[in-house]
TrEMBL record:
Its EC number is 5.6.2.4. Its cofactor is Zn(2+); Mg(2+). GO terms for biological process: DNA recombination; DNA repair; DNA replication; SOS response. The lineage of its organism: Bacteria, Pseudomonadati, Pseudomonadota, Alphaproteobacteria, Sphingomonadales. Residues 27-193 form the Helicase ATP-binding domain. This is DNA helicase RecQ. Residues 217-362 form the Helicase C-terminal domain. The gene is recQ. Belongs to the helicase family. RecQ subfamily. GO terms for cellular component: bacterial nucleoid; cytoplasm; replisome. It comes from the Bacteria. GO terms for molecular function: 3'-5' DNA helicase activity; ATP binding; DNA binding; four-way junction helicase activity; hydrolase activity; metal ion binding. Keywords: ATP-binding, DNA damage, DNA recombination, DNA repair, DNA-binding, Helicase, Hydrolase, Isomerase, Metal-binding, Nucleotide-binding, Zinc. The chain holds residues 1 to 412 of 596 of the full protein. It catalyses: Couples ATP hydrolysis with the unwinding of duplex DNA by translocating in the 3'-5' direction.
């Protein structure tokens, strides 16, 4: 069945009138049983490309997903759409029932963590009933080139290969050319199986500036941006200190969020932020995944992000409603110095990837050319030379500034 033929099901199950971006193409491939790697930006709607087949196909779609919290968000969404879905994770108490429901063919969608998917028990379950599709979410985790390598993802291959007739769909938002090629090889997907959707987020205005006086710089930025926003800080302490400073300086509601807070507090901050029209969260990177708030008006970085992929993913939380949004990154030579020190502590195998990642960030902060063009080229696109909606396009830096910046970087 083609994606077009599934339009009525798309409407009745999910309430959507049309496919978005390249969803239809991915669904077409999945329904034709072809192996596919879908690379689409955050918010593009990747989940739908296996959830719709889950409803349309006979049999169960098995989804490998790396984070329990993320899985449970997805599960809630799928169940709300009336899909018969369950998960097998260490925190699911209804383990036996879920397995039985799978064996009895009652499930359309089964979420599982990679370390469980590669275990004996799960193999036996797959023996009892062949799945309709393997979906591997956050597939960059399979690659050492990716920014979030998970060794467990490497063990998926034997499971997939045990069922060569079952189609596989790998999904990720963040993969540069290297990582993409690696995912294809690692998961046994042919090169023509790559569906690469546009990464451009034209409504986000990118700005990058040297960090001089961060509280003051961020205050000015926030005052100019009355809507809700996120300020990413490099450390847990940093989120708390920055929250206090920004609350005092701007009079806006500001809450800190990091993994060291108790779960109730975290849930509360997240809940209040989603409901708020002017709230700000100062957060570590622990904040953001699985938060569905389309009207985030700005994302700021008080320090260098981990990689271009992380930067893209984090700034991508701004302006998902398509209205104008701002991204500001403040960086210092000390950020690069620290990152370089950490390089030295890494195992040999990861060093090259991490160094390339750091160099790419260096190129982003020191470029005098269009920031968007640099970002998009990083993801393998071929963008126009100037976007007209980033700091370097709007206010072209003088060559002199760039030289000074470059010297700062090199001397760090
Ligand atoms: P991703 O995993 O690519 O980041 P999600 O699968 O979480 O994105 O989907 C992001 C949002 O887009 C969800 O709120 C989802 O309901 C919505 N969405 C997905 N497909 C469509 C569509 N065809 N039309 C409208 N909204 C869609
Ligand atoms: Mg997703």
């Amino acid at each position: 069945m083609s994606a077009d033929a599934l339009l009525p099901l798309l409407k009745s199950t999910f309430g959507f009138d049309a496919f978005r971006g390249r969803q239809a193409e991915v669904v077409d491939r999945v329904m034709a049983g072809e192996r596919t790697l879908a690379v689409m930006p955050t918010g593009a709607g990747k989940s739908l490309t296996y959830q719709l087949p889950a409803v349309a196909l006979d049999g169960c779609v098995v989804v490998v997903s790396p984070l329990i919290a993320l899985m449970h968000d997805q599960l809630r969404g799928a169940r709300a759409a009336g899909i018969s879905a369950a998960s097998l994770t260490s925190v699911d108490a209804d383990f036996a029932e879920t397995r039985q429901a799978y064996r009895d063919g009652q499930l359309d969608l089964l979420y599982i963590a990679p370390e469980r998917a590669t275990g004996e028990g799960f193999r036996a379950l797959m023996e009892a009933r062949t799945p309709a599709l393997f979906a591997i979410d956050e597939a960059h985790c399979v690659s050492e080139w990716g920014h979030d390598f998970r060794p467990d993802y490497r063990l998926l291959r034997p499971l997939l290969d045990a069922y060569p007739a079952v189609p596989r769909l790998a999904l990720t938002a963040t993969a540069d050319r290297h990582t993409r090629e690696d995912i294809l090889v690692q998961l046994g997907i042919p090169a023509e199986g790559l569906v690469l959707a546009g990464f451009d987020r034209p409504n986000i205005r990118y700005r990058v500036a040297p960090r001089v006086s961060p509280a003051k710089q961020l205050t000015d930025f926030i005052v100019a941006n009355p809507g809700p926003g996120i300020v990413y800080c490099p450390t847990r302490d940093g989120t708390e200190r920055m929250a206090a400073k920004l609350a005092a300086a701007t009079g806006r509601p500001v809450a800190a969020y990091h993994a060291g807070l108790d779960p109730e507090r975290r849930a509360r901050v997240q809940h209040d932020f989603v409901a708020s029209e002017d709230g700000i969260v100062t957060a570590t990177v622990a904040f953001g995944m699985g938060i569905d708030k389309p009207d985030v008006r700005f994302v700021a970085h008080a320090g260098l992000p981990k990689s271009i992929e992380s930067y893209y993913q984090e700034t991508g939380r701004a302006g998902r409603d398509g209205d104008p949004a701002e991204a500001l990154m403040l960086w210092g030579a000390d950020d690069f110095a620290r990152a370089r020190m950490r390089l030295g502590e890494l195992p040999e195998a990861r060093m090259a990837g991490e160094r390339a990642r750091l160099n790419a960030l260096g190129a982003l902060v020191e470029t005098v050319e269009c920031r968007r063009a640099l970002l998009l080229r990083h993801f393998g696109e071929n963008p126009p030379e100037r976007c007209g909606n980033c700091d370097t396009c709007l206010d072209p830096p003088k060559q002199l500034d760039a030289t000074v910046l470059a010297q700062k970087l090199l001397s760090a």
